[in-house]
Amino acid sequence: MTTEAIPAATVILLRDRADGVETLLLRRNSKLGFGGGMWVFPGGRVDDDDHHADEEVAARNAAVREAQEEAGLAVDADSLVPFAHWTPPTSAPTKRFSTWFFLAEAPATAVEIDGGEIVDHIWIRPGAALGLHAAGEVEMMPPTFQSLTTIGEHDTVAEILEAARRRGVPRFVTRIAMTDDGAVSLWEGDAGYESADVLAEGPRHRLVMGRLPWRYERD
Fold first, then answer.
1. Distance (Å, whole) CA 73 – CA 66
2. What whole-number distance in Å separates Cα of residue 43 and Cα of residue 69?
3. Residue 2's pLDDT band (cuts 50, 70, 90)
4. Hey, what domains does the chain have and what are their CATH numbers?
């Protein structure tokens, strides 16, 4: 039986530094049922007070609220740039969240976490975060990994925001294939997407997750 995906939103907060762009990652309490111990961007489900007839507006409301609740940062809803939309596989063993990802330049104020749901935070360059993941020092979910890979292709916040505006909003509707080495996430555009056949010849759009380091492949 497939569980209905819960509407949710995430905001990737960015800031320029002398050595490049940094993004904010939060560590979720390891005791939480969903994503426990994972390093994530601020975000969560769309609450009743966030709801709006327009799905994207509701998600913007949720992203702004979550940035305030989880990181103590005030973000203007109008400043959010849509970045991606993620739908997990129907076979997901835990709660499924249909999630809008937004980008925003971070306000110049200190991060404040509650020490409950969120137990730690770090400002970090995307490449450095991926390096820690490859070394097995941090855990993250596939959308976080793919997002860090994409924003790490640019050198400034302005470049990241402009690239997102130009490309529109990709929709990642995930299908999982299993191999002898472990799981592979497949997305539209991959030759094996419809059949869940990782050996299908053709273009690639996938995340190979069987062992570290993970590999994001896109032709």
1. 9
2. 9
3. low
4. 6-170 (3.90.79.10), 174-219 (no CATH)
